[in-house]
Amino acid sequence: MPQESRNKIEDIKRSLYDPNDKEMMHLREGVLSSVKYDVPLDWKDNIPKQSNMKNKPRKQSISPFKKFFIISVIFFIGALGFAMYKFFGNDISVSGDNIDIQVIGNSFTKGGESLPLQIEISNNNKSNLEFVNLIVEYPKGSEDNTTDVVRLPKDSIGTIKAGERVIRNIDVKLFGVEKSTRNIKITLEYHPQGSNAIFTKDEYYPVTISLAPLSVSIDAPASTISNQLVSIKVKVTLNTTASEGNPILQVTYPNNFVFESASPVPLLGNSIWSLSSLSITDPVTIDIKGRILGQEGDEQVFHAYAGETGDMDQSKVNVVYSSALQKIEITKPFLDARILVNSKDQAEYAVRGGDDVNVEIDWSNNLSTLITDGQIIANLSGNVFDKSTVKTNNGFYDSVNNQIIWDRNSVSTLSEINPGESGTLTFSFRPASFAGSLNVIKDPQVVINVSIKGRQPQLGSTFNEINNFSEKIVKVLSDFQIASSASYLKGSNPPKAETETTYSINWILSNSSNGIKEAEAKAIIPLYVNFVGAASGETENITYNEVTREVVWNIGQVLPYTGLSSNREASFVVSLKPSLSQVGSIPQLTKEINLSGKDSFTDTLLKSIRSPISASAAGDGRVVK
């Protein structure tokens, strides 16, 4: 490398890394300066024109897609301009905003009364409205049901000219509870002039019901004790013009309500009453009695609907004019008296006539305060109650009034009952028996009604009376029995070994007070007896199963007092062919008879067994050789 270049490199290094270097300061670099050169310009004339054309850039052609896009944009701009022209610059366009619908009339009305209204339609467009129809609809009943509406006949107006005003008069009848609002819907259908398209405009006119046509109110306690008789009074008052249809009252009950009676008697079932006698001066009041079953804290809801029923179905309200509901809560009684019959706590019991019925009354003070002068009274009644059979422990039995009384004189703990204190009282009785009785008694039962009361001391010397009532029903089962007999028909008598003897078996029913359903009697015949068939002329349903060797009488329904006022029996034929091993014995013709059926009054399955019938029932039944 030349020495000069080496020295320059070293100088650069020193200038970069040595801050104290002074040697480079004296060096002076050269200065660049511009230099002009003369260049001839006549070369432009020597360039061939063809060569110049070849070097020019070639113009590119437009693709079909680009052409289509440009045309689409131009069309869109044109369509937009035309639309703006039509909307903003054309005087013959139609706008719904330029159609004015006004309703003139009273915005308050009495339910069920005719309300006249005037509908004014103004066409403020500069074009005609063609094929115009006016449609008016409003709720049919007192509820806002969009499907259950009244539609007035369609009013075909025809053409409404530009700037023209059309007036129509209508009458409506609205229903609803007081201060409720009903919306009348007004719909205008029209075609713009020269168009086939259908347009609509809706207008709603609210009307307030100033007075309902019918007022329904329910008077019932806010709370009650389970299984205690409760009275529910439903009152219907006519406020305006009577309905032209079939006004009825419908009451719906909770599932745990046991209907007992009503005054007046329902029109259908236990929940529909006619309101045909209703007038402005004479309201209708329905008094319903029943029992609510449930646990403490349960809430039961009763609904009452007054309105118009349909022509075909009168079992429900189709158009509701007014409605009401009542909630009743089941509470724990302050003084509780729980009745147990034969150690069971249930609403109803079924016993046989003549059997002992043991009753327990478990009482208790559920208050947090003292109760004084407690008294418990058990009233006994019913068409089979036998007052001579009553036995009581401590209490006094008043046979004149058929009641047992316990108070502070007979039970000392009733003088002052502390909070949470309880006790038990007992008595017994026997319902009358139907055995051998010729008396006709329908629905035999004994009713046990227990009341418990006491006084709760208040401030000073005043007392608050506390009462509670409980009731149990003891139903008596029907005496359903079967008797059997046999008669000799042909063959050896007495029966002879290895010889056939034919007998007729007769079954006879007896029944007392209650109807029997699903009744059946059956018996098995021994191996040495053959089933021949039903007796001649027999109309009862008798079948025989060869596998089980069982004769079955399908009885079905049995009327009360069968065997007393009417007879019911069935007969069939069997043949006996004893063996030598049976000589000296009396063979059975059928084994024991099993009778069953359901008591319709008590809804209890009854069963009884009758002894076997032997050949001795038809004479000397001992087998000879």
Question: Can you characterise this structure?
Answer:
This protein is mainly beta. The protein folds into 4 domains: 96-210, Immunoglobulins (Immunoglobulin-like, Sandwich); 214-330, Immunoglobulin-like; 335-476, Immunoglobulin-like, CATH 2.60.40; 481-618, Immunoglobulin-like (Sandwich), CATH 2.60.40. Helices cover 8% and strands 47% of the residues. It is built from 3 helices and 40 strands. The strands form 9 sheets. Strands 20, 22, 24, 25, 26, 28 and 29 form a 7-stranded mixed beta sheet that branches. Strands 2, 4, 5, 6, 8 and 9 form a 6-stranded mixed beta sheet that branches. The protein is elongated, with a radius of gyration of 53 Å. The N and C termini lie far apart (164 Å). Residues 24-28 and 50-56 have low confidence and may be disordered.
Q: Describe the main β-sheet briefly.
A: 7 strands, mixed
Shape verdict: elongated
CATH top level label of the largest domain: Mainly Beta
The third-level CATH topology of the largest domain is: Immunoglobulin-like
Radius of gyration: 53 Å
Uncertain stretches: 24-28, 50-56
Strand content: over 45%
- How many beta-strand elements? 40
Distance between the termini: 164 Å
Domain unit count:
4
Query: Number of helical runs?
Result: 3
**Mean pLDDT value:** 84
CATH architectural group of the largest domain:
Sandwich
Structural class label: mainly beta
Helix share, percent = under 10%
Quickly describe the structure.
The chain is mostly beta strands and 625 residues long. Strand 24 (396-398) and strand 25 (403-406) form a beta hairpin.
